[in-house]
Design brief:
302 residues, alpha/beta, eight-stranded mixed β-sheet, 12 helices
Amino acid sequence: MGFFDKLKSGLSKTKDAFNDRVNEVMANFRKVDEELMEQLEEVLILSDVGIEASTKIIDRLRDRVKLEKIEDKDEVQKALIDEISKELSKNDCHVHLDTKPSVMMMVGVNGAGKTTSIGKISASLKAQGKKVMIVAADTFRAAAIEQLEVWAQRAGVTFFRKPEGSDPASVVFDGIKMAKEENYDVIIIDTAGRLHTKKNLMDELGKIQRIIDRELPEASQEILLVLDGTTGQNALIQAKEFSEVTKITGLVLTKLDGTAKGGIVIALCSEMNIPVKFVGVGEGIEDLQEFVPEDFAKALFE
């Protein structure tokens, strides 16, 4: 199964909820008028796209319908898919790991799927021929370190750890030192997910960031926030809170196969101005893939 088919299959709960609503609106369709636009906007809002993003998309659709004199419902739907795709594409969704080494720092609350995402991304990078090191900088949960080590073994990449309770910044410093000496392509850093102690987390991420900037000043950096897609609007709250703590370059949306709330991806791209870089649509090691906005928009309807 190609990834687009996996995406369609993984988004089936979201697509069914979304399509049922769109089809209902289109079944009652008489003409392309303001009432139709309002109904489509309501569909987007009910599908977790959020008020702000839904308004933007429908405003553009409204203008396009007038400009292009669209009167056919299939053409309205095509234009809607295109406008959703544009909203998802307005930020750069490509993953930038252009230097050797490059750094990927993963942040997110415990339970969002951070460990699993690190394992899957590591496996994908390894398959591309890259030499990868995972650095375990969440040193306060022994179980987290062990789980991450299992994923590193599965992915066939190097795992760097220090004793439980070590200072996370010192773990990162030593990991970077080894990666430079041994010519690694990508360093993936796991961080603690304790958002409720925001001050501590801010201090900790700040220290780690300063070490990366000092030790690898020219390196490409991706700071990826991992969000659980099943939490819907709650993912938006987490994205806002983490953005206050550190500069997020991209989002990883997990567990989209288990939810009808996949519309949250559009809300996040639109309201946060942060691109989605990976989406997870299954349990398998290959089921986390780089995000393609056009495919995601099409998969909501096909």
